[in-house]
Amino acid sequence: MFIGNVGMFVKDLEGAKKFFTDYFDAKLVATYNEEENGYYSYIMQIGDGAKLEIMTKPDMVDVPQDPNRVGLAHINIKVDTVEKRDEIIAKLKQDGYKILYEPATTGGTECRAVTFEGIVLEINLAQ
Fold this sequence. Notes:
The chain is α/β, with parallel strands linked by helices. The chain has helices spanning 13-24, 82-94, 103-106, and strands at residues 5-9, 27-34, 39-45, 51-56, 75-79, 98-101, 111-114, 120-125.
């Protein structure tokens, strides 16, 4: 068994697609649309792992969420090199995303950040 995809709702479907493409070289592998109820979905592939499904529809509820909430805590994205990880961390900072912690402050190998539309990502090295 394996996880096929993780799905998440976003307000800005095109913005989410751009975020994951720009930061993680995600590729669009499928779309699913239900015109009659305004549901739209992009299935993105990041490397060889599980797919990420980003979805939107008009009747979503958007409430502020603490990064330490109950439920899905984060999505972990593995990168091949320290240099790639550090490049992503620098870009997150440059683009104004909130860094919760990073290797320089924890002594570990990962970074956790609150990113596009509040999505919490963990970025660390593939092993």
